[in-house]
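Okay, can you check this protein?
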Amino acid sequence: MKITRILLLATLLTSTVTFSQNGEKNFIDQPYIEVTGEIETEVIPDEIYLNITINENDKKGKVSVEEQENQMISVLKSLKINLDKDFSILDFDGFFQRKFLATNEMTKTKRYELIVHDGKTLAMVFEALDRIDISNISIVKTDHSDIENIKRETKLKALKVAKEKAGDYAKAIDQTLGKALFIQEFNNNIYMPSVANAIMLKGANRESADMEFENLNFKPITIKATVLTRFALN
């Protein structure tokens, strides 16, 4: 879901002619109008990155990392997670615990990255892994799979806004808009939602079998674009 908002940014109407220091005409030699178009687009993330950590000491009885991993993979498959595409191992550590008057032991820790694509699936993953006592899960970032195209579309919309504004100004003074003389990307920012949303999801632990997973929503990613333009005035 994408929500686009137009933010009006008034600029300057001018008909001056500019000259360089050597007396030659600089850039344009006709009346022009300069306007800025600004657009803000919001899009719901469809890539939610999770870090999952399995440690042999996290469970009573010291269940091996391999056994926990097999349980986790079985659970994720039951949720129709695409393991080939959305699941990977980040790193694997092992270290000895030296004990006095006892057998030394090796403790193993394994970390994984999992990508889910909506709040409902995310909540189902949290609940399913909680059932097998895997709770060391954190949301590290959110993104959108088509973010580059959305950025491009936002810039083009900002340019169209600038042209519409310039046309309105020209009409107000009984003139018409000519060809574009100058176009510049003035500003382009992306604001990702805070991963603090994870606090809400962790708190939404399974209190009943009828938990409404679809109610777990993420804040949208905000893409802002500003374009500076100059159009000739006829």
